[in-house]
Amino acid sequence: MSGYWGKILRVNLTTKETKVEPLPEGFPRKYLGGVGFGTRILYDEVPKGADPLGPENKMIITPGLFVDTGIGTGSKTAFNFKSPLTGGYGRSMAGAELGVQLKRAGYDMLIIEGQSDEPVLLVINDDEVKIVPADGYWGLTTGEARSKAKEEYPGYATAFIGPAGERLSLISIIETDDRQAARGGPGAVLGSKKLKGILVKGSKKVPIANPEKLRELIKKWALIFKDHPATKADMDYGSGEFLDWMNRERGTFPVRNWQMGFFKKAYEKAKEEGREHIGIDPYFWAPKYRKGRKPCPLCNKPCSQYVHVESQKWGTFEVDGPEYETLYSFGGVLEIDDFETVAYLNYLADQLGLDTISAGVTIAWAMEAYERGLLTKEDTDGIELTFGNGEAAVEALRKMAYREGNLGKLLADGVKRASERLGKESWKFAMHVKGMEPPAYDVRGIKGMALAFAVSVRGADHLTAGAYGTELVGKWWKFDGIDRTKGENKGYEIAVHENLMAVYDALGVCKFSRHMYFLEGFPELIEAVTGMHMSEAEIITVGERIMNVARAFNVREGFSRKDDTLPYRIMWEPIPEGVSKGLHVPPWELDRMLDEYYQARGWSRDGIPTKVKLLTLDLPDIAEDIGAGI
């Protein structure tokens, strides 16, 4: 079939065996590609109860269907695994050149299994696949490893773990040529396999069903992107362009470990200095520091803000970002408004191999614990771990990556483990869902996103549903009249958003283009690439199928309604001031939203997909495995 090679590359690091297998029959139409392929293989091949850091876990790398076809923003590759952070379903998306080269090498999927007894690299050059010793690589930062690889393996796309992944930090990432597969601990999975890096180069051309039609469609969509108002804002200021709006217009920007929903201190400082914008607002820093852009592969609306910083405090460095989430996790949630410090924390996290969201939220928890007197100077290795202290945050980040000292050992595995290790009721301000730290949306004032956080298969997450825009603006696509402050009628909204976003992840399309493609743009693109005629209804059903397989993976691991919950602070402590003052999500309101959501999904009241639902999605084996009765 066009659009696919029909090939899986399987690499066993225990036996050092590599082999090529056929893509399972019917996969393209049922799962499309990307996260669809990865989720199903994860369910089929990683057994119940597998140790996420053991040989039974797998890293399944699946480029989206549209990767390397020329379709605008079709750049995303899925990294699929059992999450060491949550113990459940793990997925990280990256606009990775690695995915492009993997497709050019002739593969729809790369499955890495087993464990090496020594550090190795996986090197793929078309049909030639080698597992080689990682001599001189182990111990390097991600940037050092990439520089070394570019000399020794010119022309290859790369993916490396840093010191944090080597030390099995549960919040460690895979750095892939200035893009990060970050959430859920993928770096620890590779670290447990002693796989320092993956290098891929390909020379083949993805087969296209109707090249002429595809060229027409690429041109058509390029013009739509060019003229869309979101394109200019994204290109000029990056993903953080709505930071000021989130603060002043919505009051839903989490600050000081979620004690507030508005960066009050930064705005007071800016006002005193006669500035309109606070220091971490890209309207302030992007024009001053941006050196250029490093877009994801074949992106025609690049939001990348590649910055060059010459800092008296941190020296000279360059980094892509900071993204909106990082402006929160190393800025607002730590109460740091100095851009150079936030950018340096971003740079350091990428180099050391730590997820910026999880790392920042974990440090914020430690700052609150320190200020409450629950952490002593002995616990923090003498660091004055107070809010707004950039030097302390930098030192804490380094210690986390290397599991160094009392503080590093405490924080290296994220906020859930840290609060469990400390005790003393520190769980009450430990911000996580299912073990994953939340992104930059104070969902006390965004009720639909509160539900999305609670039910997300990979833990607190804004991208599984991607409903924050709908909630905050009040309308999008088929939805209108949405009230973010009310908990009613959120179940159907979030279920539909999740289904559609799963389609985006299967196709490999960036969610920043969801305002352009919606769902209606995909049938003709899929047909041009693959030759498959699929209606909108069939395509959205693919998304629903993917979401049910992912939920089934979690159910098999023991997850249920009890895990679809929210942090104590979100349920019991209202936002104290700002536009959203007084809002929170009490347990009774969350329970009502969960009932609505499970009903919309066709699941049991305990959040288990029913046999009937799974059979209607053509998942008879999963229905037999975990399906709930009537």
Automatic annotation (TrEMBL):
Domain Aldehyde ferredoxin oxidoreductase N-terminal: 4-204
Gene Ontology MF: a single term: metal ion binding
Taxonomy, superkingdom: Archaea
Signal peptide: none
Keywords, comma-separated and alphabetical: 4Fe-4S, Iron, Iron-sulfur, Metal-binding, Oxidoreductase, Tungsten
Record-linked Gene3D superfamilies: Aldehyde Ferredoxin Oxidoreductase Protein, subunit A, domain 2, Aldehyde Ferredoxin Oxidoreductase Protein, subunit A, domain 3, Aldehyde ferredoxin oxidoreductase, N-terminal domain
Alphabetical list of SMART domains matching this protein: AFOR_N (SM00790)
Cofactors that this protein relies on: [4Fe-4S] cluster; tungstopterin
Family: Belongs to the AOR/FOR family.
Name by which UniProt lists this protein: Aldehyde:ferredoxin oxidoreductase
